[in-house]
Amino acid sequence: MDIKPLRYFAEVARQHSFTRAAETLHVAQPAVSMAIRKLEAELELTLFHRQDRKVSLTDEGARLFQHAGRILQAVDNARLEMDELRGLSRGEVRVGIPGMLGSYYFPPILMAFRHRHPNLSLKVVEAGTGSLQQMVETGELDLGVIVAEQVPEALESRVFLREQMMVTVSRDHAFARQAQVRYEDFFREELVMFQQGYFHRRVVDRLAHRSGLTPNIGFETNLLPLIKSIVKQGFGISTLLAMVLRDDPDLVAVPFDEPVWLDLSIAWRRNGYLSRANSAFVDFVLKQTHQV
Known about the structure:
Blueprint: H1 3-15, H2 18-25, H3 29-43, E1 48-51, E2 54-57, H4 59-85, E3 92-97, H5 99-104, H6 106-116, E4 121-126, H7 129-137, E5 143-147, E6 155-170, H8 183-188, E7 191-193, H9 199-211, E8 217-220, H10 224-232, E9 238-241, H11 242-245, E10 251-254, E11 260-269, H12 276-291
Organism: Marinobacterium aestuariivivens
Family: Belongs to the LysR transcriptional regulatory family.
InterPro entries: HTH-type_LysR_regulators, LysR_HTH_N, LysR_subst-bd, WH-like_DNA-bd_sf, WH_DNA-bd_sf
């Protein structure tokens, strides 16, 4: 089986469109259509339903799509490794970072890494840890920051940061004068939370489940500055990493009566090829952590 038609097939399956797939692949649409027809003829199977410009996978196409991702990733890994052996690596690091860490922990690390390795390019994606984990597993990202306790078998990881989640309130909130906050008291308040898929939200959902309580969520947003603004104005409280609050005099951080610690890891595919550029980035992150 030729790899190019398989790559075209996978892109059409992702885009649900021959036109959008051609645009993404930077080829003419007839070339994509012809490649798919040849692939279907070779396999003697129909891979797509084509109705009223709507494209969807047949059952046979869905089965092939499961294999296609693994095959294409293996080919890309082999090509990258061979390029590096010839000294032709493009030196790209594709890393996914959650919003809180992307705003408060990684900027100096990213800049320092770029200064040390000026020939390497960095592609940074912001998303929740759940999404980042999936993107690393499927090969969309080379590296991703996830919560250590949730690392699946398909990934390998190294813990680089242990940080405490703190109850976050305005300076005039009653909790600001307390040494600690009970879970029961926290969940009675109106909460400002990240949406599902972010470790911030997973922590709160896990604590609520463990305590047998229902979170009173008044605001949901993935915009960290908005969360902080809402809390400052007294319209709710939240829980954020301690690092987010160190240089903000208008917010008060109070620990839970049972402290909540998060171990954060940098992860990559266990059976994938970790390029020299990505290995250098992992090593740099771990060394920076040990220097803190």
